[in-house]
Write a structure and sequence with these properties.
The chain is mainly α. Helix content is 77%, strand content 0%.
Length: 300
């Protein structure tokens, strides 16, 4: 399997899991606040990934990592598994969800930009077009074709969500160059998130156990949505260009809309399917090699 095909397969798995975030957030925070929900999710993600590393015989890899590298991995973990979700959950709690979702999905755009400067990846017309199509699809889905519905009602919180999106984009780009086993690295990412979320929960909230009806979404979020999805994401990043993968992630909010329709009987709107078509088209354009695209378009 080629690196690009492997990266595409894993990023599609990530998309299917990440699209569940609205579902698990909606059902998992009936009594828990964002600090508590983040703590329990981080704890489960860490334990599951640590167990997987143990079963895979990777515990010896932890001893091979020098202290200075541990610090760098922990800092990455704070960026991508703590700050991003801390600000994201804050946004959904205090700001208009429509605004939060738009700002949240600036991170794939930021990946393309950061990849140019940090990873020295090339920028092509295909990448620009695919990103523009993807973002247009996101806007169609979340505005239902009514772009006048977007306005900033809570600038402070929205700026924090944007800062979180930047942190996740930076995390994704820098994680590409972490040359350690993905299971080991992701275990450490969530260990950092667990420690930070415990501190923030104790300082800014209270310790609380999930209610019975919250157990399944908390487990699902910890094991798959925020757990193994990060493993798949890091493997995808290590397999091919980050800027190639970024436009595919625009499928996530469109798929989230479909999940909401299925699980919560949300009304179906034409813009959902128009947006889904746009993001899939953007991903397909980005996945076609320059030569193949040229031949299809009649360009020599």
């Amino acid at each position: 399997m080629s690196g690009k095909l492997k990266g595409t397969l894993y990023v599609l798995i990530c998309i299917a899991l990440w699209a569940l975030i609205p579902v698990v957030s909606k059902t998992g925070q009936t009594s828990l606040d964002n600090h508590q929900f983040l703590f329990w999710s981080s704890l489960i993600s860490f334990l599951v990934l640590l167990a997987a590393a143990g079963l895979g015989g990777k515990f010896s890899e932890f001893r091979k990592i020098p202290v200075r590298e541990y610090l760098g991995i922990f800092l990455l973990g704070l960026l991508g598994t703590y700050i991003y979700y801390l600000f994201l959950y804050l946004g959904y709690a205090e700001a208009v969800g429509l605004e939060v979702l738009v700002v949240q999905y600036t991170w794939p755009l930021l990946i393309v930009i950061l990849s140019l400067f940090i990873l020295r990846e090339s920028l092509s017309v295909r990448k620009v077009l695919s990103v523009l199509l993807g973002f247009s699809g996101v806007l169609l889905v979340i505005t239902r074709g009514d772009f006048s519905g977007i306005h900033v009602s809570n600038p402070r919180v929205i700026l924090l969500v944007l800062a979180g999106a930047f942190c996740f984009a930076l995390f994704s780009v820098l994680s590409k160059n972490v040359g350690r086993n993905a299971l080991v690295v992701n275990s450490l990412y969530f260990l950092a998130a667990l420690a930070a979320s415990l501190i923030s929960m104790l300082l800014m909230s209270d310790f609380a156990l999930p209610a019975r009806e919250e157990l399944l979404p908390v487990l699902l979020n910890g094991v798959l949505v925020n757990g193994f999805s990060y493993l798949f994401w890091v493997v995808a990043l290590q397999s091919t260009e980050a800027s190639y993968l970024a436009p595919f992630t625009f499928i996530t909010p469109a798929l989230s809309a479909l999940y909401l329709i299925l699980f919560f009987n949300e009304p179906v709107h034409w813009s959902t399917f128009a947006g889904l078509t746009a993001v899939i088209l953007g991903g397909l354009i980005n996945s076609i090699k320059t030569g193949s695209f040229g031949r299809m378009a009649g360009v020599p």
